[in-house]
Structure formats: structure tokens, C-alpha cells
Amino acid sequence: MNTKFLVVDDSVTMRRIVVNTLKSIGYSQYAEAEHGRDALDKLDADAGINFVITDWNMPVMSGLELTKAIRSNSKTQKIPILMVTTRGVKEDIVQALQAKVSNYVVKPFTPQILKDKIDLVLSN
Amino acid sequence: MSKSIKNLNEIVGRLHEVDSMFKFGEKMIPVIEGFVSFITDFIPFIEQVSGSIQDSRSKIPEASNQLDKVTNATELAMTEVLDKIDEINLQLNELTEFIDEMVLSRTKVENHISELYEEIKGNEKAKTIFKKLMEEIDFGLTLELMKNKVTRIMANTDQITMSLQVQDITAQQLAAVNHLIISVQQKLGNLLSTVDSTGLNVADNLEHKKLPDIHFDARATYNPSENQQNVVDSIINNEKASQEEIDKLFS
Fold it and tell me: To the nearest whole angstrom, how far is the Cα of A11 from the nearest Cα of chain B?
């Protein structure tokens, strides 16, 4: 599979869990970022990244701000973005959809849920 | 003449007013003395209260640091647990490969056994021993059971990994509490500064701890049920459907 993920989360544990899940479902290419700003730098430096999995609540730059920044840049606007967050209320989900996330996973998630969402996003 | 009398009457009236004021003043003096006495007694009380506030306020940074330490310690512990899970998964994968190799090898052995069985067909005693031997070494079922066990252990490690997400959720809850207690410390500091500006020497020398740059979801809860995701999915589907309808209207 040629998908290279960028896993964005300020929690080391969560990055590790997402990466482990990706490995267990057959994806071996990934990069990591601690917050939105860091993610933008990584995207700028590595053109091979073609899928972003991001948390919402992060210092420096949130996942929502990151999504808006990715969508407003012609080089990155088509990259699929999967929001993985604890925020599960309707207002948050609507806000994320308006920012044009590709899909939304609420924590805690199972490996199967993450796989299903990645497959769904990639199939679209 | 009458004008002079009018003026005198006015002066007398004023004197009566002054007299009344003095009489009122005389009555008020004990009240004012009582009030001053009350304030004098009250100052040590305010100082005592502000001392308590200072004491509580001085403990807040310690409590806040303690919460930070809890978050860091649990994150470290989770990393260690994840290291171990990685190790277990690696060994389980090796074990799965080993079992698969054994299954392949078993097919070869079965072919040899069939050949051997053909060779001893005429020998009844050898055939009986051969059947007993086959009952003893029928490891096909064992391999199947082993593989099922490995699959179950792997499912359990996945489950553990999922449960470890609780660390991120509790870290956000602790960050919310931390934010709250630092806000309280700041409010108490402001209160002490206000009291200090009245001339009472109550201001503390503590630094105002800045609110940490941590973004958290104060409503974060650990709910391992998949229902939560189902609710999210239905909201997404409804929202997307609504958006599609809007897009159709404008197309």
C-alpha cells in the first residue's frame, strides 16, 4: 500500500496507539507530529504524506485549525483528513465537517473502527 | 428695626441648628467609637483570612505540579506497557508463522505416512501399531487450537491497546482540573492585591502561575462502547445528506 500517514497528536500514548493500529492493519509508512504547526511543517517537508490522522485538542495549533490550513493550501487541499478525538457532541462534529474533515472517529476507538474509516476515506 | 430683629431671629435659628448638630454629634460619638473599635478588631481578622488565602494559594502550584507529574508518570507507564504489547505481538506473529510452517510440514508428513501405510498393508500387526501411532501423533487439531489461542491473545492485546486510550482521556480531565485550580490561584492573587491596595499588608510574594498552554476537552469521558461511534456516524450521515440537498438546490 502506498499510503503514507501523518499521525498528529500531542499525546505520545495516542500517537503510539494509532501507529500500532496502522501497522496491525497493514500500513507501514507514517510520520508523526505533536501539533498542527508541527504537522504543517512535516507536510511541507514530505510530499509523500497523503493521509492525515489528527487529534482536535492540541497546543500551538488545534486539529480544526490544521484542517482549515490544509484545505486552504492548493498543494495539500485534497489530502484526506481523519479527525480522531474525544469530542463527540453534534456541534463539534458539524464544525469539523464544515472545516472539511474526511471522516470522524471518536476516542476510544477499536482497530476495526479505525480500519473501516480509513478504508471508507480511501475508497472515496 | 424690624430688619435687625429678623436677622437676629435668623442667627438664633442657625444657633439652634448648630446646637442640634452638636447634640447629634454627641449621640453619634459612641456609635463612631464603636465602629472604629469594630474595624480595629476586624483588621486582624482580615489579616488572618488573607493569611489563610495566602497559605491555600501557596499550595496550589504544588497541587498543579502534582497533577502534571501524574500525567507524565502515567504517559511513561503507558509507553512501557505499549512496548511490552509490541513485544508480545511480535512474538505472537513469530508463533503464528511457526504454526503455519508446522501445518505445511504436517501435509508433507501425511504424504509420507500414506506411502508408509501402503507399504505395510499386508502386515496386520504393523497396521494396528500404525493406527495407534497415528492416534498419538494426530497434532493437526493441536495446531488448530494453538492458532486459535494465538488469535485470541492478539485480540486481547488489541483490547488492551484500546483501553490504554484512557490515558489520553484522563490526561485531558486532569488538564481541565489543572486549568481550574490555576484560575482559582489567579483569582485569589487578585483578591489579595485588592485587599493590599486598602493599606493592609496582605499581598503575597508568590508568582502568578501562568495558565498552561494545554488544550483539552473538559467533557472527555472514557466510554469503550461502540455506540458513541454509531451516534457520531449517524450525525455525519445526516449532516452530509443535508449538505447534499443544499448543494442540489444550488446546482
Answer: 6
- Please give the grid coordinates belonging to residue B225: 462502547
CA gap A52, A31 in Å, rounded: 10
Q: Which residues of A touch B167 (CB under 8 A)?
A: 11, 13
Q: Is B222 on the interface with A (CB under 8 A)?
A: yes
pLDDT digits over B230-247, tens only?
888 988 888 777 766 666
Taking the Cβ of residue B161 and every Cβ of chain A, the question of whether any pair is shorter than 8 Å is answered with: yes
Task: Show Cβ contacts of residue B218 under 8 Å, excluding neighbours closer than 6 positions.
Answer: B172, B173, B176
Q: What is the pLDDT of residue B189?
A: 79
- Which has the higher per-residue pLDDT, B251 or B18? B18
A30 has which bridge partners?
A5
**Model ipTM value:** 0.81
Asked if B235's CB is within 8 angstroms of A107's CB, the reply is no
Euclidean distance between the first and final Cα of chain A, in Å? 16
From chain B, pick out residues whose CB is under 8 angstroms from the CB of A14.
165, 168
pTM for the structure as a whole: 0.72
| Distance of alpha carbon B125 from alpha carbon B159, whole angstroms | 53
Instruction: Note the residue count of chain A.
Output: 124
> In Å, what is the CA distance from A54 to each residue of A59, A76, A85?
13, 15, 8
CB-based contact B82 A86, cutoff 8 Å:
no
Residue of A nearest to B163 (CA): A108
What is the C-alpha to C-alpha distance for residues B85 and B81, in angstroms, rounded to an integer? Answer: 6
Q: Torsion angle, CA of B124/B130/B132/B138, rounded to 10 degrees? A: -150
Among chain B residues, the shortest Cα distance to A106 is held by: B229
How far apart (Å, rounded) are the C-alpha atoms in residues A25 and A48?
20
Give, in degrees to the nearest 5, the angle at Cα B182 between B180 and B183: 65
Residues of chain B by 3-state class (helix, strand, coil), percent to 5: 85, 0, 15
B231/A59 touch (CB, cutoff 8 Å), yes or no: no
Interval A30-86: pLDDT, tens:
999 999 999 999 999 999 999 999 999 999 999 999 999 999 999 999 999 999 999
